[in-house]
Amino acid sequence: MEILLENIGRRYNQEWIFRGLNHQFTAENPTVILGANGSGKSTLLQIILGIHTPSEGTITYSVEQKSINIEDVFRSFSFASPYMELFEELTLMEMLNFHSGFKQFVKGIDSENVVELLNLQKAKHKELKYYSSGMKQRVKLGLAILTDSAAILLDEPLSNLDKNGVAWYQSLIKEFAMNRLLIICSNHQPDEHFCCTKQVVMEDYKG
Questions:
Q1: Which of 51, 158, 159, 160 sits at 20 to 30 Å (Cα–Cα) from 166?
Q2: What confidence category does residue 104 fall into, taking pLDDT thresholds of 50, 70 and 90?
């Protein structure tokens, strides 16, 4: 999959958050979007996801040089962020089974395998509302990285993770994400974007 941004800009009222942004995202070059809080990196990620529209510029999505309509592009994405909500009334197993009814996990992985990869075997029948913030972040990241999608978009993936969680995240990325288009938003934390070979620095595109 490829995503091409041409002269992308976004403003609120008359204030430009960023503008003049050009970049090509490819599976061969995992990319980090770097920026301080309020720099617009999460807004850019949501534009790429199709949640928001740019105030100027165009986005082109393609797979094997065939264009994808914006209305259909969500099928190609999996996404995780600290502000993303889970269905907290469900247990982990119920959540995984519900999710797999809409999007399949990567080949050879089922719900039980996901539980093991999350290291949450003892809590798989516990409702998610009783999980700690770190456990919830593992679930969000697991759902994104282990889903069979062409592109993975992660917003500040190390939020709420401890030292062991950082090592777990990096291991999961290395094993399951490196053959797909990968975009990571980071507040300049090298452990988050350890695998990225390209970068977009939001401060370079201030309006």
A1: 51
A2: very high
* Measured CA distances, 196 to 33, 48, 168, 179 (Å): 10, 18, 17, 12
pLDDT classification of 196: cutoffs 50, 70, 90: very high
Inter-residue contact 205 to 18 (CB < 8 Å): yes
Q: What are the boundaries of each domain within the chain?
A: 2-205
Residue 122 burial by Cβ neighbours in a 10 Å radius (0-12, 13-18, 19+): exposed
* Domain formed by 2-205, architecture: 3-Layer(aba) Sandwich (3.40)
Ranges of H-type helices in the chain: 41-49, 92-100, 111-118, 133-145, 163-176
Cβ burial, residue 76 (10 Å; 0-12/13-18/19+): middle
Residue count (the chain): 207
| Dihedral sign, Cα of residue 60, residue 157, residue 142, residue 42 | negative
DSSP state at residue 85: P
What confidence score (pLDDT) does residue 64 get? 84
Please state the rounded mean pLDDT for residues 162-183. Answer: 97
Average pLDDT, the chain: 96
pLDDT for 35-78, tens place per residue?
A: 998 899 999 999 999 999 999 999 999 988 889 888 888 889 99
H helices of 37-85, in order, are 41-49
Strand, coil or helix: 103: coil
Residues facing 15 on adjacent strands: 12
